[in-house]
Amino acid sequence: MDVIAASRNNVHSSSPSDHHDSGCPESDLSEQYKTPPPEPLTSFAALKDRIRHHYELASEYYYSLWSAPATSRVGEHLHHGYFLDPNDTKDRAQTRLIELLLERTQLKKGSAVLDVGCGMGGTSRYLAQQHDCRVTGVTISGKQVEMAVRLSKDAAGESEPTNGVVGGEAMELGHGSVRFVELDAEKLGEYFPLQGMFDCMWISEAMSHLPDKELFFRNAAKLLRPEGKLVVADWFKGENLTTAQLEADIKPIEDGMLLPPLCTPTQYVKFAEDAGLKVFSEPLDISQNVAKTWDISWSLVQSPALWAFAFSQGRDGIAFLQAFRAMRRGYANGTFRYAVMVFQKSGKDT
After folding, report:
1. What single-letter DSSP state applies at residue 47?
2. Taking the CA atoms of the chain, what radius of gyration do you get in angstroms?
3. Comparing C-alpha atoms, which of 315, 284, 346 is closest to residue 33?
4. DSSP string covering 259-316, please?
5. Is-above-0.85 flag for pTM?
6. CA distance to 217, 283, 344, per residue, from 229 (Å)
7. Which of 115, 145, 158, 271 has a Cα at 20 to 30 A from 220?
8. Rounded to whole angstroms, how far apart are CA atoms 230 and 309?
9. What is the mean pLDDT of each run of 10 residues along the chain (350 residues)?
């Protein structure tokens, strides 16, 4: 696609700036495309349809956008990077986030893992190859399942064509395995018939998309084995924000990223405890270490062709790109937060 090529070529002539938009030449492009007023949300089912459509349309673009030819896992991670060193590449930082979650989860090698909101399967493959896990990845997008299968076959050195593959079959990777299923994350309890199927449920930057988060925590409590763990990395709003802060910083993020109202980490803890889970690893706010992700992302989308393409896709396309600025602003103002946490099921089924 010409849009992809144009936006990738633009990366070489732009560089991440600081968190403030004022005085940044790159902000001029976004000023040309104002986001129309939000359309009323008719139902959460309609929101899910928009989310599904977004990933069906944009997943190949995401993969291309994040690509770095010298990297072995080219463009496969869609989540934030955890930057600890000024010289960290986005690839190293994204892997480091997975490593942080493994460290806080104390996940045993060979565990059975449900990767919820698996995207193109990057984390699923990492857990299989580096941690010998047997991973089931689920995503609402059939396109992402197709891509996850293709990339996993590439990682396994398999050469057979994957056109039309819809996933579901396990593929061996190292001493672990992966399989991918197209599934709405709020229907986990219906799809998996047995309780206590998984040692770990892993959800990275996907729960914020779920309208019924309390249902998700209840399903996690059912699907986890005794002493199983739920590891969460997600986007949050800050605690005790004013109406003005919500309107200026949080609403544009929710709008552009197709999110129901954002929660606070405290709310997630309550949802988990109400579902019978206990806190294994307290919420850890790593906002300052992940904010650079959106500096990099903003530099990657500075292409007139990309903005024109987004405009052609209707309101959601422009709102999505404008949300990049809102996320940078939210991190700078402390109103938008990023935290990781781990919960555990009790040692016996109740």
Report:
1. H
2. 19
3. 315
4. -S----HHHHHHHHHHTT-EEEEEEEE-HHHHTHHHHHHHHHT--HHHHHHHHHT-HH
5. no
6. 11, 14, 4
7. 145
8. 38
9. 36 36 47 65 67 62 54 59 91 93 97 95 95 95 88 79 56 94 92 90 95 96 97 97 96 91 98 98 97 87 77 79 91 97 84
